[in-house]
Amino acid sequence: MRVNHTRERLAKGETVFGCGLQSYRSAEVPRTFAAAGFDYVFIDMEHGAFDLETAYDMIGASVKAGITPIVRVGEVAYSLVARLLDSGAQGIILPRVEDPAILREALSWMRFPPEGKRGYGVNAFMVDYESRSFTEIIEHLNRHTLAVAQFETVAAVERADELLSSKGLDIVMVGPADLSISLGIPGQFDHPLLISTVERVIAKCREYNIVPGIQTRGVAMAKAWAGRGMRFVGAASEHGLLLEKAQETVALLRSSAAPRQG
Description:
The chain is 45% helix and 16% strand. By secondary structure, it is of the alpha/beta class. Strands 1-2-3-4-5-6-7-8 form an eight-stranded parallel beta barrel, surrounded by nine helices. The model has no long low-confidence stretch (mean pLDDT 95).
């Protein structure tokens, strides 16, 4: 059956790196990121325009390429979480988490009983068409599903103890853009208040044995937070990386062009 390689690396204490998918509706993008060496893709169904069928294609391509597909749902709803897990997602990101009771309920949707409340709708492709018992499938999928909660507001940080003590939570992923807005310093990612707040989240995660993570807006920011202790690190998104590389390429080409004559 399918192994969640990102979860295995995190269990060994390693740092994993991923990239967001927000704009380009192509299953070739996760295959490209797998070839580049990313550990996971962050398929965004909150701010991205993907429908379920597009996400399904991306998830399938990711698994076949050996990169972990993790999906952010548009809202915290059982119907979204369940359908994406049944489409083969190996992790779910819950956005804008603030309420401990809502978080506990949502986490229960990601695992089968007795660990949770997930309904059994497993398709043959999810177990690579292997002949397995219900018990084997339940134990395997419970073990290989990543549950991620996003801290994006001051309220979430203030309730960190209650949220982090929720059963079944694997990763907390900081959303620095929304957190900066909540702190009253929109877009100031180097501001001491933002940095100290995120470092407070890292310290709390360590206290509760939860993996600290962050989705950043570029490579430099990703490197900086990996150096500060983040272990689940997203470096920008597919459209941002393409634009950055294209701009770099055009600048190099123009700098090498021969000057116009006369």
